[in-house]
Amino acid sequence: MINIMKRSALSALATALLTATIIQIGCASTTDTTKETNTPKIAEDLYISFCTTNEVKRQPETFESHVYTYGLQSGEVSEMGVVPYNSGYPLAVYSAKDKQIYYSYRENEKNWRNSPPQLYSYDPATKKATQLTDNLAGMNYIVPQKDKVILVASSIEEENLLPYVYERGKGASLVSGWNKDLGIRKLYINPNNEEAICSAYSSNERNNRFEYQTDEYPFEEPPESVYSLLGKDKV
Question: Would the pTM of this model clear 0.85, i.e. be above it?
Fold first, then answer.
């Protein structure tokens, strides 16, 4: 279970700024090749996961994503694997904790309505891909953690971008206690305590602002609040 805590504007902003640079960072073993400096030492197990996308050679309109890690201490870029890309936009991340690539994929790319993007995992060692969810309809964030994967996603039943947690053997479920009216705009992760911090807005208020806009009062996005989704190990 993940607890929800709404943060004050000042503390939330400070935390968000601190964690903005470490989203999708995990643990990987690297070699310390840095020299002694006066700057703070970066832990050797911190890395950033990212992906690039290209069209497959001799297969027009078929695309794939190459998934990499960048060691914050070593400065080395390593390719971890290649996964197919056919969802709304490429979204794939490597997790060194379980040596898996998590990504968004549609089983039937020609039938969007009946085959929305789901969460998949890919094992680079065995080259085996596994479908992990069947109730989602698209994802904006995939964040692997120790024993779960945090997602910002829409589902077959909910159009809003909401926080979901995928747990092995249990599928993806909405974070307990989350107000379904709150659509998530941004998500940040602190890898030290697995705290997820997100900004969210009222979907009902946004819809009302859009419906009743005028030339005198044009549409403006509603204000956002910042929430903390606390990891299991934090009280």
Answer: no
